[in-house]
Design goal:
This protein is an alpha/beta fold. It contains 15 helices and eleven strands. The strands form three sheets. A seven-stranded parallel beta sheet has the order 1-4-5-8-9-10-11. The chain has a two-stranded antiparallel sheet with strand order 2-3.
């Protein structure tokens, strides 16, 4: 794939290179707030059917970038595709019920049955979607691939779904840390294969979502989350199509650990809305780019309030290269699509 990338602002910003304006993309920019997404989801029949159909996943990936002048497309998929390929009986309940595993992983014997899926066989639908999106973008903007951090994916596998207190995986962590480490090792190997396959298929940047790293103590975070993300970053394909493939790591609730995360070799850090970007930039000493970090709930605000909040984020980063505007987490369902348009316009018009 050697087409000319017409807009490479995102890739340049992730590598801390100068850009004429701040690039912007949004976590969950393809999702339930968009009427076109809801229509495609209805055609698919279920969320899992949508994720596993490359043509429909491509369609949904392109919907927000066709609607808004965004600087990046992120593959429409889910962080639980790897355990789904491990045959754990993944399903998604209707409404806000979230993911459920029919066969959770709760013992050393359960872990021993697991192996890293071949992304070009068991996860071929994802790799096919990456190739299809890249082809359909025709070099308009870069495509971001992604995976879940081993710790975050493991929480769902052990808990059997989402959790408020993470009692089962934390019990495993205290009672049988060796079992948990074996599970995390399998997931790290699987994620390396998975992300590198996405890069080979056309992803031009990759992101690790560590949604639940923030529920750990500082020492636990280093041992059970960051160490495995460091393994993944160290094993990623660094270059494709003659240019560097930037990597982004995002730990929700990880503001106190930004310096440690920056040290693992990634190119950029996602920052949630609980940390000021000025403080984040000071913590990482401009060693990595920063991505974020508007509170997603600001999209419910009146237009002028939203504009002011967006400008506040831009001002908090300050001058110089290395900032990608994003939310501090994903777009909330129920947001008015016009508000997203207002946000994108405000960021694009902001002077460097």
């Amino acid at each position: 794939m050697t087409e000319t990338l017409k807009n490479d602002l995102l890739l340049r910003a992730l590598l801390r290179q100068p850009t004429p304006r701040r690039p912007i993309w949004l976590m969950r920019q393809a999702g339930r707030y968009l009427p076109e997404y809801r229509a495609t989801r209805a055609r698919a029949g279920s969320f899992l059917a949508l994720c596993t159909n490359p043509e429909l996943a491509c369609e949904v990936t392109l919907q927000p970038v066709d609607r808004y002048p965004l600087d990046g497309a992120i593959l429409f998929s889910d962080i639980l595709t790897i355990p789904h390929a491990m045959n754990l009986g993944l399903s998604f309940e209707t409404g806000a019920g979230g993911p459920k595993f029919e066969r959770p992983v709760r013992s050393a014997a359960d872990v021993a049955k697991l192996g890293a899926p071949d992304p070009n066989i068991e996860l071929k639908y994802v790799i096919d979607a990456v190739a299809l999106v890249r082809r359909e973008l025709k070099g308009r903007i870069p495509l971001i691939g992604f995976g879940g951090s081993p710790w975050t994916v493991a929480t769902y596998m052990v808990e059997g779904g989402g959790s408020k207190d993470f009692q089962l995986i934390k019990r495993m962590m205290y009672e049988s840390p060796t079992t948990l480490h074996r599970l995390l090792e399998v997931l790290a190997r699987a994620t390396i294969l998975y992300l590198n396959a996405q890069i080979a298929a056309g992803a031009q940047a990759v992101m690790l979502f560590d949604t639940w790293g923030g529920v750990l103590t500082p020492a636990q975070y280093q041992e059970f989350s960051l160490a495995y993300m460091a393994q993944i970053i160290a094993s990623l394909t660094r270059e494709a199509d003659g240019r560097r493939v930037p990597s982004i790591v995002f730990t929700k609730g990880g503001g106190a650990w930004l310096a440690s995360i920056a040290a693992i070799g990634c190119d950029a850090l996602g920052v949630d809305w609980t940390t000021d970007l000025k403080a984040a930039r000071l913590a990482v000493q401009d060693r990595v780019a920063l991505q974020g970090n508007l509170d997603p709930s600001a999209l419910f605000a009146p237009a002028e309030t939203l504009r002011a909040a967006a400008r506040g984020v831009l001002e908090s980063f300050g001058k110089g290269p290395g900032h990608v505007f994003n939310l501090g987490h994903g777009i909330t369902p129920g947001v008015d699509p016009e508000r997203v348009g207002t946000l994108v316009e405000t960021v694009r018009d902001y002077p460097v």
